[in-house]
Design brief:
Length: 195
């Protein structure tokens, strides 16, 4: 009976070539498993950096901004984004987007949700780039309609995870009095009884 190594077997009956093949196959298998684990770990790491979002809704003057600020002061890893503040800041920036926003508002139209979602996405990216510890966002004043939800899902479903919606229910007379008080210092043209 011949041997795998041209008639030369080791003293223990193993063919050195077969032993080499066995060791090489084992090493290749271990390397492959390690690569799979690293790939899973990288995917999990990418998922972990995906921002978590809580939408904070309620009428004007319900306390959305106040509560968001309190949460971000007391809980690390959270940032507060106001859809309205982002739109106002963009309106004042002088960009081409500002022109579009101003023209929509001047004609009494609603700013397209794609613009608002784009501003929210950019703000989240900017904050996370500055501070890697911030991965959770309180988004105040958005979404305001089913169309906003649809746009968010189409643009952000693979980029951010919505955890839940926090709705602040507040009586209308309380909201009105808060807004009129805020009007004394806010400088916002929508803080008036008519609006």
């Amino acid at each position: 009976m011949g041997s795998c190594c041209g008639g030369k077997e080791s003293k223990k009956g193993f063919c050195p070539f077969s032993l080499f093949l066995f060791a090489a196959t084992g090493a290749a298998f271990a390397y492959h498993k390690l690569q799979q684990k690293q790939s899973r770990d990288e995917s999990a790491g990418a998922e972990a950096t995906k921002p978590q979002v809580v939408f904070v809704l309620g009428g004007p003057g319900a306390g959305k901004g106040t509560q968001c600020e309190l949460i971000t002061e007391r809980q690390s890893g959270w940032a507060h984004l106001s859809a309205g503040d982002l739109l106002r800041a963009e309106r004042n920036s002088g960009s081409k987007l500002a022109e579009l926003i101003n023209s929509k508002i001047a004609s009494g139209q609603i700013v397209p949700a794609e613009i608002t979602v784009g501003l929210l996405e950019k703000a989240m990216e900017d904050i996370m780039a500055k501070d890697a510890a911030v991965t959770k966002f309180l988004i105040d004043g958005f979404p305001r309609s089913e169309g906003n939800v649809t746009t968010w899902k189409s643009q952000m479903s693979d980029k951010a995870d919505v955890q839940f919606v926090l709705f602040l229910d507040c009586p209308e007379d309380t909201m009105t009095s808060r807004l009129l008080e805020r009007a004394k210092t806010s400088g916002r043209n929508d803080d008036n009884i008519d609006v």
